[in-house]
Amino acid sequence: MPTPNFRFRPAAPFVLVACLAAGVLGCGGDGISVSTAPKANGGGGGAVSEYRILGAMYPADSPEWFFKLPGPADDLAKYEADFDKLLASVSLAPGGQPKFDAPEGWKVGPGRAGIVIATIRTPDGKYEVTITSSTGGVEPNLKRWAVDQLGQKSFGPEDVAKVTKPVEAKGVKGLKADLRGPNNPAPKGGPMMMGGGK
After folding, report:
1. Which of 31, 69, 116, 169 could be joined to 54 by an S-S link, Cβ 3.0–4.6 Å?
2. Could you read off the pLDDT of 115-142 as tens digits, one per residue?
3. What's the whole-model pTM score?
């Protein structure tokens, strides 16, 4: 009995098309995905994925004075070295306001609204450090920055060590804070930082 001669050629174009379709459409959810960057909240319409507050508290154990520099995370990175120099220059006179040396090119300005005692603007004028006085302790004030202003979902005592590090200034120890979140902190109270957390 002769061996049957099977022919599969007519099906070849269909197999090829099916394979190409599978490659384009993907299988099991491994296809092409598209994502969009979130828009800036309260910003000028540009895409900003993350905001940041660089801050500091003096004295570290029972803070009364707060330095705060808010803005888009990527932008603030270029000012951080100078901000660290500013923090290291702080001194506290008994019963008086903090003294500090502004980094080269940064402009010291007056306070405002009876809450901000002084301002320091970056050399390009885009961002501003505010210096305020408050009470309420470390964790409640950090929580206000993190949750109320930056839009983090939660912030507790266990998070304090994750976002702070000691600062050795002139005769006083401080805490530097570095917090991030999805919201622009500028419209949410601006430079104001009230004491007594929730």
Report:
1. 69
2. 899 999 999 999 999 999 988 999 999 9
3. 0.72
